[in-house]
């Protein structure tokens, strides 16, 4: 039994990154090629909206437009690029949704391309891993974030917004938001604590949104390939194997966080499933 009626992929633009941050060692040198070139690749920035009989659920909160500011000659490791209409609040508006109407926001982790507009969701319950909240907040409080993937401006905004948080404790693997839609605590890996979302749709069946717990299909393998940007490499492999088992048991389609090829396929399918 599921109360979910529709899953909608929200295309929120792209980022450019060095491919070795997605898959560690993907361009390792060899005897024949001792100085391989780095590859600068485009990856999608996305969020997902779930319509249910019990209200709206959002998975991830986009990337703030300020991340697109790339001064001439700046050494920006992962600039954000977007077209008009691609920012998360605009995408929601295109679907007739105001942030005030969203009942749950599940945040995979608090990196800037996933939590950029979190401060707008003042009426929602914000679901995030306790380990992620605590680890990132500790860093924010002690020394700020510098040039890393967490952004001080995001934290300033959402901490001052008076949000209602629901933290998933270590060992609390599942939290059912409404019948058929469940937040899944993947544990540490890419960041301090990663959270996925399992959705059971009446016709299209199961989807498991993983965000950066698996950037791309080649991270899942087998064998699992750890990304270059990783907080806990042992936890990463453990969570990747957990995701594979979880999805198999529920016959769910695994949706990767930044897989351009898969995201193009999702959009080609219409970007909506029911
Ligand atoms: Zn991330």
Which terms would index this structure?
274 residues, alpha/beta, Metallo-beta-lactamase, Chain A, 8-stranded mixed beta sheet, globular, binds zinc ion
Q: Could you explain the architecture of this structure?
A:
The structure is a single chain. The chain is α/β, with parallel strands linked by helices. The protein has a single domain (4-26, 39-273), classed as 4-Layer Sandwich (Metallo-beta-lactamase, Chain A), CATH 3.60.15. It has helices at 88-94, 130-143, 152-159, 217-220, 233-250, 260-268, and strands at residues 4-18, 40-52, 55-59, 80-81, 102-106, 125-129, 164-168, 174-178, 181-187, 194-201, 205-211, 252-256, 272-273. The strands form 2 sheets. Strands 1, 2, 3, 4, 5, 6, 7 and 13 form an 8-stranded mixed β-sheet that branches. Strands 8-9-10-11-12 form a 5-stranded mixed β-sheet, covered by helices on one side. Strand 2 (40-52) and strand 3 (55-59) form a beta hairpin. The longest helix is centred in the last third of the chain and has 18 residues, at 233-250. The chain starts with a strand and ends with a strand. The model has no long low-confidence stretch (mean pLDDT 95). Zinc ion is lined by residues 109, 111, 149, 190-191, 212.
């Amino acid at each position: 039994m599921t109360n979910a009626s529709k899953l909608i992929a929200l295309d929120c633009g792209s980022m450019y990154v060095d491919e070795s941050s997605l898959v560690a060692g993907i361009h390792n040198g060899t005897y024949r090629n001792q100085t391989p070139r780095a590859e600068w690749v485009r990856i999608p920035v996305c969020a997902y909206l779930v319509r249910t009989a019990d209200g709206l659920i959002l998975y991830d909160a986009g990337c703030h437009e300020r991340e697109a500011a790339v001064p001439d000659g700046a050494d920006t490791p992962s600039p954000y690029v977007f077209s008009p209409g691609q920012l998360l609040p605009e995408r929601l508006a295109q679907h007739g949704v105001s942030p005030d109407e969203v009942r749950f926001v599940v945040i995979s982790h608090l990196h800037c391309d996933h939590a950029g507009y979190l401060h707008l969701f003042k009426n929602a319950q914000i679901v995030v891993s306790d380990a992620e909240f605590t680890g990132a907040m500790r860093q924010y409080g002690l020394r700020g974030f510098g040039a890393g993937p967490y952004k001080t401006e995001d934290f300033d905004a959402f901490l001052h917004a008076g949000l209602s948080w629901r933290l998933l404790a270590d060992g609390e693997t599942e939290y059912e938001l409404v019948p058929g839609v469940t937040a899944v605590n993947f544990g540490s890996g890419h960041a301090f604590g990663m959270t996925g979302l399992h959705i059971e749709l009446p016709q299209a069946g199961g989807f498991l949104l993983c965000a950066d717990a698996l950037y791309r299909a080649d991270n899942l393998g087998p064998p699992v390939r750890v990304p270059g940007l990783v907080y806990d490499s042992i936890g990463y492999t453990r969570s990747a194997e957990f995701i594979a088992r979880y999805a198999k048991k529920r016959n769910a389609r695994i949706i990767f966080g930044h897989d351009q090829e898969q995201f193009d396929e999702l959009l080609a399918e219409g970007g909506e499933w029911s």
